[in-house]
Amino acid sequence: MAEIIADVRTRTERPLLAKLAPNDPDIGATARVAAEAGVDGITAVNTLPGILLDPVTGRPGLGAGPGGVSGPALFPIGVEAVRRVRAAVDVPVIGAGGILRADHALSYMRAGADLVQVGTGSFADPRCAERVALGIAGAAAPDPSAPPSAP
Fold first, then answer.
1. Pairing with 96, which of 4, 83, 124, 131 sits 20 to 30 Å away (CA)?
2. pLDDT tier, 136 (very low <50, low <70, confident <90, very high otherwise)
3. Among candidates 48, 51, 50, which has minimal Cα distance to 24?
4. What angle do CA 84, 90, 80 make, to 5 degrees?
5. How do strand 41-44 and strand 17-20 relate by DSSP bridges?
6. Nearest-CA neighbor of 78 among 91, 104, 96?
7. What is the SS3 assignment for 69?
C-alpha cells in the first residue's frame, strides 16, 4: 500500500485519500502507513465482504456472486474504525458506513471524523445526504430561545 500511495502521490497534486477496510485487524496502523506514504486523508470504512444465497437453489442473489455489505449493518463498525484511525493519524478522516440520519453523522464526528460520506442511504433516498447535512447544521445551530452566553 505504501508503495502504491507514494507512486500515485508523485503523479498528482490533487487530494489523495485512502479508503480502508473495516475488517483490518489494526486499522490505526494501516492508516498511519497511508499517512506516512503521502495521503491527504483517510476514509473509514469501505464495505465488508458478504454474499446472499438463494435458500432454495443456493445460487448467489447478486449477479456477480459475492459483494460488499454496506448500510446500517456497517454503522457501528465504521464509528469504531474512525475512532481508531483518529487516534493514529493527524490527517483528515472521512467517516463512512451506514449514515442514514444526522445523528449517525454526528456519532462519526464525535468519534473523530472531520467529514462524513453518505452512500447506501442515497440509493433508497436520493435526498438523504441533504437531510443529513441539514440535520447536522440544525444540531450545530444555537438555540435562539437560549439566554445569551456571558462574554
1. 4
2. very high
3. 48
4. 15
5. parallel
6. 96
7. strand
Distances (CA, A) of 27 to 11, 44, 51, 78, 108: 26, 9, 23, 11, 16
76 — pLDDT class (breaks 50, 70, 90)? very high
Domain spans in the chain, listed from the N-terminal domain onward: 2-48+66-140
Run of H or E residues at 87? helix 75-88
Which H or E element spans position 120? helix 120-124
- Topology (CATH level 3) of domain 2-48+66-140: TIM Barrel (3.20.20)
CA distance 100 to 68: 18
Integer CA distances (angstroms), 123 to 32, 55, 127, 129, 139, in order: 32, 26, 9, 11, 24
Residue with cell 500515485: 8
